[in-house]
Amino acid sequence: MSNSPKSLVLISGYYGFGNLGDEAILESIIRELEKSVAKDKIVVLSNAPETHREIYGVEAVSRWKAASLLKLLPKAKLFISGGGGLFQDTKSPGSTIYYGGQIALARAFGAHPIIFAQGLGPLDSETGKVATRLAAKLSQDITVRDKASLAMLENWKIKAELTADPVWTLDETALPEGVGRQIDKLRNGNRLIVGLSLRNSHNFSEGRRAILLSVLLKTLPKDAALVLLPLQKEQDLPQLEPFLEAWKQAGRQGMVLDTKDLKRPSQWVSLMRHLDLVVAMRLHALIFALKEGIPVLGLTYDAKVEHVLRQFGQPILILPKEGGDDQLEQKWLDSASAGLQDLEKLGAQARENAESAKKLACRNFQLLAKILDIKN
Asked: Are 240 and 198 in contact (CB under 8 A)?
């Protein structure tokens, strides 16, 4: 690293909120940056700075203290915004204003801002669209993880590169023994062990959860055991716990995974190797499984999920936005029955596509290395 006063790399995103997908993105960024940047020069803007300092040994400050950011920016050479879906206004345009404002400040202080491996949208408000467009114009480089985001930027005449989610590059770390033992207790001969990832969503009602239960009871072997995966506890457990109760009432076996010993997202990658199939709504549950060659059955609560499932040729349960539940069980039953007939084939397709996704994801880090080299 240079002795230039501008030596810091700032990383901003939805970090420190207990969302495993965002934490996996952060871990992948830190692990790549460590190859060329000293740990004390990497700073995470976090909702839980002490946690990130302890786990990764990097610097971290509260994302809510503007004074901390303003103190760091004069020393920052690179400002990474992402990845994930930061520029969206599903609840309010506040997120677009917050992250866009950071990019504007970074540019004003002479740092090199990059929108990194993001999925842009949905953007329904005029404020959200304006804030996102301005942030994109002020960013010196942009990589996006899906074609819809690229098309949006092209429509705005803003240059960007299509890459892939950085988590495709995240190598596994050792799984704590206690976590592996939890799953191994469910094993009995050739019994199928199925991971299940659900989350609260406007288009996943109690009725649709009941339909999913019915479909899995009909399509999975009678001795199949469920391992319920809370990737973000407050959003996931309200769906997972009643599902497990109903599953057990039907005479089936399963458990909610105790995740307290899982400190790093990369340990979840190792966890996937203990499963034979993953049924998931969450994007990163699907990515963790697919990158390890584990077949998946996905529920498309969001367009980004459908994009990955189609890319990897995995069976899809379409979640309509609203209404249309009359034929939903039959549609899901048809999709699951056809899709799950050959798990070995699905696993082979996963492995084949994961390699190309990893290569595409590496483009994000090649760009970072190039920027850092120029800035040195």
From this structure: yes
Give the mean pLDDT of 55-75: 96
- The domain defined by 8-162 folds into Rossmann fold (3.40.50)
Closest CA to 287 of 349, 357, 217, 363: 357
Q: In what order do the strands lie in the sheet with 76-84?
A: 59-62, 42-46, 8-12, 76-84, 112-118, 141-144, 161-162
Domains 8-162 and 177-356 share a fold: yes
Extract the tokens encoding 53.
Answer: 């300092």
- Other CB atoms within a 10 A radius of the CB of residue 66 amount to 12
Q: Are 112 and 76 in contact (CB under 8 A)?
A: no
One-letter amino acid at 60 equals A
Q: What is the chain's mean pLDDT, rounded? A: 94
Chain segment 85-94, per-residue pLDDT in tens = 999 998 899 9
- Fold assignment, 177-356: Rossmann fold (3.40.50)
DSSP readout, 15-50? -SSS-HHHHHHHHHHHHHHTTTS-GGGEEEEESSHH
